[in-house]
Amino acid sequence: MPTIFTHPAPMLALSLACGTRVIPPRLVVALLLFAMLPDLDGIGFYRGVPYGSWLGHRGFSHSLLFALTCGLSGFGVAPWLKASRRLTGGLIFLAALSHIALDALTNGGLGVALLWPFTDTRYFFPWRPIQVSPMSLARLFSERGLAVLYSELSWIWLPAFATALFVRHLRRRREQIKGNA
């Protein structure tokens, strides 16, 4: 899995690209939380839950059903987040789904239970460039941990924010052209 620090990166980048008129600050915070939420299953490591169990790490909380459930919860909290129900639900679904996709791009672990409860099979993408993160904070600050952070910077943070800045530039340019017309 990428580090807990990196899972919010796609949602941060999307928020930067769209701006606060499209994605209000409260919704941004919710997106960051939902992008990290699936890793609460990591508590199972300390509670004796077997890794390969549907309750284990990358089990049911890394499924399309879980992401859909998260998205549906967005419909209920949308007014409090100061956004439309459809936007909130869709983006929260996307936040949880981004977590699953990033984990499926890593080079370690058992994969993600994408299609749980229909199958317990764990999946990875065929291309897996992201170094899998150690499960402890202490090991993150080791030589291997630095390699993981470099991998995340190269494959997630830089592309996400370069794309966001490019999209933001295009949006501003379009607004300038409309204003001059």
Task: Walk me through the topology.
Elements: H1 9-18, H2 25-36, H3 43-47, H4 64-81, H5 85-104, H6 137-140, H7 143-180
Helix pairs in contact: 1-2, 1-7, 2-4, 2-5, 4-5
What does this structure look like?
The protein is 59% helix and 0% strand. By secondary structure, the protein is an all-alpha fold. It has one domain. α1 runs antiparallel to α2 and α1 packs parallel to α7. The termini are far apart. The mean pLDDT is 94.
Counted by DSSP, the helix tally is: 7
Number of β-strand runs: 0
Counting structural domains, the number is 1
Q: Assembly state here?
A: single chain
Strand count, sense and barrel status of the largest sheet are: none
In short:
With 181 residues, the protein is an all-alpha fold. Helix content is 59%, strand content 0%.
Which key features would you list for this structure?
181 residues
